[in-house]
Amino acid sequence: MTKIRVGLIGVGNWAEYGHLPALNLLPEYVLTAVHSRDITKANALAQRHGIPHALDSVEALVRHPEVDLVVVLNTAPQHEATVRAAIAAGKDVYCEWPLTPSKAVSQELAALAKQASVRHIVGLQRRLNPDYRYVRDLLKDGYIGELRSVRLHISVEYFQRERKAALHFTIPPENFSSLLSIYGGHY
User: Fold this and answer.
1) pTM to 2 decimals?
2) Which domain holds residue 144?
3) Using CA atoms, how far apart are residues 153 and 93, in angstroms rounded to an integer?
4) Backbone CA torsion sign across 107, 109, 115, 118
5) Domains in the chain: how many in total?
6) Exposed, middle or buried by CB within 10 Å (0-12, 13-18, 19+), for 21?
């Protein structure tokens, strides 16, 4: 079996404590490259986890011959440029949610990926959380009964002035009000 060679873009806590442990448990994947805006962080992460290539640009990672799948873990405002680069390089893409803070841009990226025959997914890890999967199974088995209503609550109004500048994209409600419609209600 040929392993899928993975390049990570973004080396924060979510990469190190979320994605890296999961990918290391899956025999179908091998981590081959990593990029951070801070090359010293990329080098440190690569050394800690035995990743052969620490690269100094998004372009270098998406064009690297030992990368089949680009995992996008940088901040949401950076997703657009990163995903565009991966699509242009013909690489499959896993992007953490949200794809972008803009419905129109997200729709455009989805269309570009389809046009380029690039496989792509926007990851929302909670749908795979064991608790959520358990409830899904209870519903599927009829244990709970018929599902008649679902409510999703996202709090973006609180502490706006105190939010880090990197999270300001989360404040305008139009950035999230209809993202579900991009994928026909599916992530």
Assistant:
1) 0.73
2) 1-187
3) 28
4) negative
5) 1
6) exposed
